[in-house]
Design brief:
Order of helices and strands: HEHEHEHEHEHEHEHEH
CATH topology: TIM Barrel
Number of strands: 8
Radius of gyration: 17 Å
CATH architecture: Alpha-Beta Barrel
CATH class: Alpha Beta
Strand order of the largest sheet: 7-6-5-4-3-2-1-8
Bound molecules: pyridoxal-5'-phosphate
Number of helices: 9
Oligomer: single chain
Strand content: 15-25%
Helix content: 40-55%
């Protein structure tokens, strides 16, 4: 097996163990492989090991990779910030967008989704802990935004996504993820048919699963360390 295949296997085991420990069914958490900064060959290796869903942050880099790998049946997820001038690329090339945090962006994605493609699957990004990472709608405003996004014809709202700041320990991390789950539950209580809590990364996926995650976004634990942010 390649290193990437080994790593995928280890991450799958970590997810399964986290499910067992929190009394959740095995298979209730999907794995999104975050391939940002890694080339098409790394994605191909993960694909060959059975991985089908990949997440990308930088839209132009992603579109180049999506084009290079168009022969593979990959489900591409946009997990990076979406500026207005990038909505068309996202609408045309991705199956999912996790980072919708403004109605204006959602409207553009819906308007620009090509008619021959199924609706774009979207999550509302929620800034659950008020962290310095300012992306995301506040928990107070999240339900109202979700109700508006759910009306847009070419989007299918699936749930929420969050990127909390690193917490000091497991219990603190789980508490933040549980507060995200509470936002999700408030949306469901409004009648929205949601199924996705996109939360947890290489460092905190165990706490995220304990807190209710249904999709973890894992990069470095699969592909290895990325170049430092200054050059990424
Ligand atoms: C990079 C990134 C990830 C993956 O992070 P790792 O720590 O490498 O697992 C997950 N989600 C988002 C939004 C990211 O930007």
């Amino acid at each position: 097996m390649t290193m990437i295949a080994d790593n995928l296997h280890a991450v799958a085991q970590r997810i399964a163990q986290a499910c067992t420990q929190s009394g959740r069914p095995a298979g209730s958490v999907r794995l999104l492989a975050v391939s940002k900064t890694f080339g098409p060959d790394a994605v191909q290796q993960a694909f060959d090991a059975g991985q089908r869903a990949f997440g990308e942050n930088y839209i132009q880099e992603a579109v180049d990779k999506i084009t290079a790998l168009s022969a593979l049946a990959i489900e591409w997820h946009c997990i990076g910030p979406i500026q207005s001038n990038k909505t068309r690329l996202v609408a045309e090339h991705f199956q999912w967008a996790h980072t919708v945090d403004r109605l204006k962006i959602a409207q553009r994605l819906s308007d620009q989704r090509p008619p021959h493609l199924p609706p774009l699957q979207v999550c509302i990004q929620v800034n659950v802990d008020g962290g310095p990472n300012k992306s995301g709608v506040t928990p107070q405003d999240a339900v109202a935004l979700a109700l508006e996004v759910a009306q847009l014809p070419r989007l299918q709202l699936r749930g929420i996504m969050c990127i909390p700041e690193p917490a000091p320990d497991f219990v603190a991390a789980r508490a933040v993820f549980m507060s995200a789950k509470a936002v999700f539950d408030a949306m469901v209580a409004q009648g929205l048919p949601l199924d996705t809590l996109s939360m947890g990364m290489s460092g905190d996926l165990d706490a995220a699963v304990a807190g209710g995650s249904t999709m973890v976004r894992v990069g470095s634990a699969i592909f290895g360390a990325r170049p430092t942010p200054a050059s990424a």
